[in-house]
Design a protein that fits this description.
Blueprint lengths: L1 H4 L3 H13 L2 H8 L3 H15 L4 E4 L2 E4 L1 H21 L13 E6 L1 H18 L4 E6 L5 H6 L5 E5 L8 E8 L1 E6 L11 H6 L1 E5 L9 H7 L6 E6 L2 H10 L4 E4 H4 L5 E4 L8 E7 L7 H9 L3
Parallel strand pairs: 3-4, 3-5, 8-9
Antiparallel strand pairs: 1-2, 5-12, 6-12, 7-10, 7-11
Organism: Pseudomonas turukhanskensis
GO molecular function, one term: DNA binding
Protein name: LysR family transcriptional regulator
Length: about 300
């Protein structure tokens, strides 16, 4: 690295052209420099490499053995540099072979990934998706280090350091099985509090959620008899028991096995966001992926 610090990149470009042309005049024309400027460059190169590099010959200039040894590695190095500084090429999903890592909860998988999956795989048939469990505490680090490409989480709980795009606003509804004996009609607030509820807690051990906070504001409580870590667990419970649940509407909308009601207490919903790190923001492939996952 110390050797590189004392070399002007323009000198290496000049050497590359001189080794191709074997002529100072033609090299000057190709590089749009004056002939004296190319001669100055050559003098500096000879000093740096401690070698004449190019010697006068009957038909132009003849490279020394040292110059011949430099020719191939120098061309490869400059080609690599050209690729580094070249503008990003457009992303072509038809031929791309990416493997994407998405950090998502089972709710996000159901409401965001699954609706977009068919279109995404049809447009990019050689790509693969890996869905990994969302870990909110590690999300920012995972995105920064490239362990995951995108994360899906509630906006108000998302790290402010991350880029984001709001996907939708969600609301809660009361859900129970279609033939639930106590859900023939929308329950009153008092009836709601006496129903047996199941609640989703990320660690499976919490019995208080946003619904309980809303009830507490009016001096009421409900009966939460089961806590589970995943939304999909709730759906299985609802169809096989008389338990009810306050669930995001998008998760259960259109489910023929369930009966849905507006809750008798105002429960705040949430905003769902797609999150990514600045390191990926301008990448054409990443930009394409983000667009595919907007419903």
């Amino acid at each position: 690295m110390n050797n590189l610090r004392r070399i002007d990149l323009n000198l290496l470009l000049t050497l590359d052209v001189l080794l191709a042309e074997h002529n100072v005049t033609r090299a000057a024309q190709r590089l749009n420099f004056s002939q004296p400027s190319i001669s100055v460059h050559l003098a500096k190169l000879r000093e740096i490499f401690d070698d004449p590099l190019l010697l006068p010959g009957p038909r132009g200039m003849r490279p020394t053995a040292r110059a011949e040894a430099l020719r191939g590695p120098l061309r490869e190095a400059l080609t690599a540099l050209e690729q580094v500084v070249a503008p990003s090429s457009p992303f072509d999903p038809a031929v791309a072979e990416h493997t994407w890592q998405l950090a998502v909860s089972d709710y996000g998988e159901h409401t965001i990934v699954q609706p977009a999956l068919g279109k995404l795989l049809l447009s990019a048939p050689n790509t693969r998706l890996a869905l990994v469990a969302l870990a909110p505490a590690r999300m920012a680090k995972q995105l920064e280090q490239g362990e995951v490409d995108l994360a899906f989480h509630t906006l108000h709980d998302s790290p402010p350091s991350l880029r984001h795009r709001l996907l939708f606003q969600e609301r809660y509804v009361l859900a129970g099985r279609r033939d639930h004996p106590r859900l023939k009609r929308r329950p009153s607030l008092a009836q709601f509090c006496t129903l047996d509820h199941v609640l989703v807690s990320p660690v499976g051990s919490g019995f208080v959620g946003v619904t309980d906070e809303a009830l507490a504001q009016v001096g009421l409580t409900r009966r939460v008899v089961l806590s589970v870590p995943r939304f999909q667990s709730v759906l299985a419970v609802l169809t096989s028991t008389d338990l009810v649940a306050m669930l995001p509407e998008r998760l259960v909308r259109g489910d023929p096995a369930l009966r849905l009601y507006e809750p008798p207490v105002a429960v705040p919903g949430f905003e769902m966001a797609m999150l990514w790190h600045e390191r990926s923001h301008r990448d054409p492939a990443h930009q394409w992926l983000r667009e595919q996952l907007i419903n």
